[in-house]
Structure formats: structure tokens, C-alpha cells
Known about the structure:
This protein is an alpha+beta fold. It contains nine helices and five strands. The chain has one domain.
Amino acid sequence: MTLLKAWRRSTPNNKELVYGVYGDELVLIPMHRAQYLALTWKAMVTAKTWGALRRLAPPKAYREILAFQESPRSIRAAHPFDYGEMAEVCDGDYPGFPKREVMDWMPRAVWEQWGQMVWTVNGEYPGFDPADTRKIVASLKQCGFRCRRRQRLIEAAH
């Protein structure tokens, strides 16, 4: 079974988190979101044509990428695809910014206690020190989250 098929069969559960270090920060992402981002990145990097992208990417990601195009109806399967030509990817706005997204799902008390606000062109987010990993994970477990270290998945989601 391919990773894409396995992902399609799974159900989103925002209480199941994965974490690891990316750059010099601890990153936490809901498992289903991390898998989605990893699949989307893999499809974008691997696909050389729009047809290949359609086969490899999650359907929602394919529709989003297609919507970014000036003339989506004119795109054919054999047309070349290059994610580097997408302004949204180059600007860091697509397919997602997991470090910023933490503010959407993590209890505010946790990210306010452990995060140090970081400002970027893509907005602000709470940066987490990897030295605090055990304490942050313990705080999240007290809030009902299940946390697993999955370094490769964290890297693939970026």
C-alpha cells in the first residue's frame, strides 16, 4: 500500500501529535497534518508533469495547486510541472507553515508558557527550544494529547 493510500484511509485526530527538531527549534504537528504536508511536498518535488502531480498528491493539495495557476483549465497531464515556479511556495505560504499553525491547535497556555515569539515575513509564531522538549510534551499530555517523536516525518513536512 502506498503512503498516499494509507493516508487516505486514516482519520484526522488532532490529539495525536508528532514532534522533532527542524532548524534549531522543536516543532510539533498533528500527525494527520504532518502526513499531509509530507505527501504534498514529496509530490511537488517528485512530479515532473501535472499528470504525475495528480497521481502523487493528496486530492485537496492537487486542487489547491491547480487553483494557484492563471489558466487552470488549459493545463494538461503532459504539461511540465515545477513547484519552484509557484510564488506561493517560494514565499513560504504553501503548502503550510507548521511552526505558525501550532497557534491554531495547541492550547494557548502551553505555547505561551514554553514558546518565545519569533517574527518572520510569514507572521509570528511561538518558537520552542528543543531543550524543553520533555516539559512541553508533558504539558501537552496533561491536555490529552498523545505525542510521538517522528524526526523524519517532521523533516518531510517542511
